[in-house]
């Protein structure tokens, strides 16, 4: 199974050597949550994960290329929204995460983009990221 950019989405990230990878960018207000997402995704998907800190978020969204963005919904602001929209229009798979029950049904203006509840359920996170990679 491959993502929209040709990345390999098979179960297990450590095989086979030379496989194409999906590149995931994780940005969360809690660095430990971002590390947890990285661990879950690299253990279950053939992917690379990059973590960006919120203070560098706008610059990272403008300058880096990736297939999937896993973004803490609490970081959405007027400065960030245009970048997320541009990425979505360019085919980047977007997944929001949140501890806020208000976000469970989605974020205003971002219909159809899934919102992962935190703490993460490993299987659900993998399933949603895999789906986002395929559908972009």
UniProtKB/TrEMBL annotation:
A Gene Ontology BP annotation from the UniProt entry: phosphorelay signal transduction system
Domain Response regulatory: 23-133
Keyword Manganese: no
InterPro entries registered for this protein in UniProt: CheY-like_superfamily (IPR011006), Sig_transdc_resp-reg_receiver (IPR001789)
Modified residues (4-aspartylphosphate): 72
Key words, A-Z: Phosphoprotein
Protein name: Response regulatory domain-containing protein
Organism: Rhizobium straminoryzae
Top-level taxonomy: Bacteria, Pseudomonadati, Pseudomonadota, Alphaproteobacteria, Hyphomicrobiales
């Amino acid at each position: 199974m491959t993502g929209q950019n040709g990345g390999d989405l098979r179960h297990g990230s450590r095989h086979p050597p030379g496989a194409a990878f999906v590149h995931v960018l994780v940005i969360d207000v809690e660095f430990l949550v971002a590390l947890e997402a990285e661990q879950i995704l690299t253990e279950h998907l053939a992917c690379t994960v990059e973590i960006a800190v919120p203070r560098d978020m706008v610059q990272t969204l403008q300058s880096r290329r990736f297939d999937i963005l896993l973004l803490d919904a609490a970081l959405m602001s007027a400065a960030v929204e245009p970048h997320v929209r541009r990425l979505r229009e360019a085919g980047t798979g977007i997944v929001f995460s949140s501890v806020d029950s208000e976000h469970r049904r989605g974020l205003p203006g971002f219909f159809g983009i899934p919102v992962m509840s935190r703490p993460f359920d490993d299987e659900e996170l993998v399933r949603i990221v895999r789906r986002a990679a395929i559908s972009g």
